[in-house]
């Protein structure tokens, strides 16, 4: 799981059937201080997140299949599974 910020939405007129009716979001991974970390990517939204929200993104294939209740072959890798209200990080963790 990764903590990310939603940067925007994706609109696609032609896409794989597995994406039909699903909202696609561009998400930016964040580090433990809330700063951008790495490249942004696209995730399917199952948490009704919006632009600017901090979200929890799952990028694990088995979890994706279980959440979406789809078969073995799913061309979806990342799911927004929750909207984060707050993140608390202890100072000792940051000093390592």
* The CATH architecture: Beta Barrel
Number of strands: 5
The named CATH superfamily: EutN/Ccml
Distance between the terminal alpha carbons, to the nearest Å?
Answer: 21 Å
| Radius of gyration, in angstroms, nearest whole number | 14 Å
Query: How would you describe the shape?
Result: globular
CATH class: Mainly Beta
Largest sheet, in brief, is: 5 strands, mixed, barrel
- Provide the domain count: 1
Can you characterise this structure?
- The chain is α+β, with helices and mostly antiparallel strands.
- The protein is built from 2 helices and 5 strands, in the order ββββαβα.
- Strands 1-2-3-5-4 form a 5-stranded mixed β-barrel.
- The longest helix is centred in the last third of the chain and has 8 residues, at 61-68.
Could you outline the blueprint of secondary structure elements for this entry?
Elements lengths: L1 E9 L12 E7 L11 E5 L8 E5 L2 H8 L10 E5 L7 H5 L1
Parallel strand pairs: 3-5
Antiparallel strand pairs: 1-2, 1-4, 2-3, 4-5
